[in-house]
Amino acid sequence: MPSDTAPDPQNRRARGRPRGWDDKTEQNTIKSLDRAMLVFEHLSRSQGKMLTELADDLNQSPATVYRVLVTLETRGLVEFDPAEQLWHIGPQAFVIGAGFLRRTSLVERARPILRRLMEVTGETANLGRELDGQVLFLSQVETNATIRAFFPPGTLAEMHSSGIGKVLLAQMSEERIARILADHPMQAFTPNTITDPATLSRELATIRAQGFAIDAEERNEGMRCIAAPVFDHSQSAVAGLSVSGPTSRVSEEKTDEFSHAVIQAARDLSAALGGLP
């Protein structure tokens, strides 16, 4: 006879996970696949690399890297430009990335808010989140102006030199900030980049008090960015919104105007996610 007692979910193996699924030791990793992903990730951060450059960057033999590239090429994840002798990220990488973006409602809900923010300010509007101690740009609505900022989806940036990065750091605990800075040393990109932890700490206190962050030519000279945090239903800062453009248009004199617009857009997206600042 069938039992009336439901199986104990604690004793039921989770679907899609074998026994020991949380064991990330070497015995449960595929070295060749890990090596391929290392090449793929490194290539994704560049605008094209020669085989010898990739091999040198990764301290791998050109023959090994070439086999990885050819394998990835057959899947459309990378492609080769014979004229320039450069390897690039392929179209299938975008298809896979788009699948990730479709999984989250964050990008979908942000799109009309980003467009409205761009129309109100006349500058490029951006959406980003923290990923492994860096800013991952998820979406962007570009201005029609000739000179404009450009952060295509998938771009990674260091948090200490980014408006979105700093506004997210400002919502984190000191312990988490310390871990991020330990993993990602504070590199100087321009003369304005903050590279001193104590100075950054004071900057983050100001950001928490005023509700927005400014990237004052800290990543790229001549470009300025104003960002605000986005909160979810648990009041966690899950993303940041920003506007960015040349200092001639996103000027210090317009800080109040732009910051009000960015904060309002961040509040609108927070509300759409069921959260409040």
TrEMBL record:
Biological-process GO terms, alphabetical: negative regulation of DNA-templated transcription
Molecular functions (GO terms): DNA binding; DNA-binding transcription factor activity
Keyword set, alphabetical order: DNA-binding, Transcription, Transcription regulation
Pfam families: HTH_IclR, IclR_C
InterPro entries: GAF-like_dom_sf, HTH_MetabolicPath_Reg, TransRegBhcR, Tscrpt_reg_IclR_C, Tscrpt_reg_IclR_N, WH-like_DNA-bd_sf, WH_DNA-bd_sf
Domain HTH iclR-type: 30-91
Chain residue ranges for the region called Disordered: 1-27
Ion transport found in the keyword field: no
Residue span, IclR-ED domain: 92-275
Protein name, UniProt field: Acetate operon repressor
Organism this protein belongs to: Roseovarius indicus
UniProt lineage: Bacteria, Pseudomonadati, Pseudomonadota, Alphaproteobacteria, Rhodobacterales
Gene expressing this chain: iclR_4
